[in-house]
Design brief:
heterodimer; A: 7-stranded mixed beta sheet; 4-stranded antiparallel beta sheet; B: mainly beta; 5-stranded mixed beta sheet
Chain lengths: ~120, ~110
């Protein structure tokens, strides 16, 4: 079974530039997550999609970050314009389903991440 | 704010059991406890989860106290490849990873 694919693996940009990341989840996985992981911290959930609809984007800085999942398969995360504090690893994950019942989640499968450096 | 607390680091001798504690003092009745680990430069990997009962799979065992306020992840025979950051998560606050426990398995 192919895993979660992300590209690019590394990106270096200057502040105020724009950048986009791409994620292809595991085939058949309805739920897709984007996380931001700053050095020395755990991953922080930015946005969660169920098929092509947004389930939770409460921690997404919407003034500069946007994400879409057209057709409910692959997804892109964009930052425009980038700031120095956006330097981080951006992780994409997918699961067969999202939250179900009253608090159980399906296992999330993570991609290798995209390491963004903003100069 | 973090809803789980873990020691920042632990060491374990190779071949011995690694016991990683987690306090989830604000967990409510329908919230699950999940454990993930992250090996350097890789994405997190699911290990195990539970609600009330102890759980075991091919990777680890999960012991949850009766009041559900704490849990322990047990790696029965730690190997060098188990060196990683281990995250305890309760599902009441989205999927908040916190800073985890950095486990070093020593030869």
């Amino acid at each position: 079974e192919a895993g979660v694919a992300q590209s690019p693996r590394y990106k270096i940009i200057e502040k105020r530039q724009s950048v986009a990341f791409w994620c292809n989840p595991i085939s058949g996985h309805a739920t897709l997550y984007w996380y931001q992981q700053i050095l020395g911290q755990g991953p922080k959930l930015l946005i969660q999609f169920q098929n092509n609809g947004v389930v939770d984007d409460s921690q997404l800085p919407k003034d500069r970050f946007s994400a879409e999942r057209l057709k409910g398969v692959d997804s892109t995360l964009k930052i425009q314009p980038a700031k120095l504090e956006d330097s981080a690893v951006y992780l994409c994950a997918s699961s067969l389903r999202g939250p179900f019942g009253t608090g159980a989640y399906n296992e999330q499968f993570f991609g290798p991440g995209t390491r963004l450096t903003v100069l | 704010d973090a809803k789980t607390t873990q020691p920042p680091s632990m060491d374990c001798a190779e071949g011995r059991a690694a016991n990683l504690p987690c306090n989830h003092s604000t967990i409510s009745g329908n919230e699950y406890v999940y454990w993930y680990r992250q090996i350097h430069s890789q994405g997190p990997q699911y290990i195990i989860h539970g609600l009330k009962n102890n759980e075991t799979n091919e990777m680890a065992s999960l012991i949850i106290t009766e009041d559900r306020k704490s849990s322990t992840l047990i790696l029965p025979h730690a190997t060098l490849r188990d060196t990683a950051v281990y995250y305890c998560i309760d599902t009441g606050n989205q999927f908040y990873f916190g800073t985890g426990t950095s486990l070093t398995v020593i030869p």
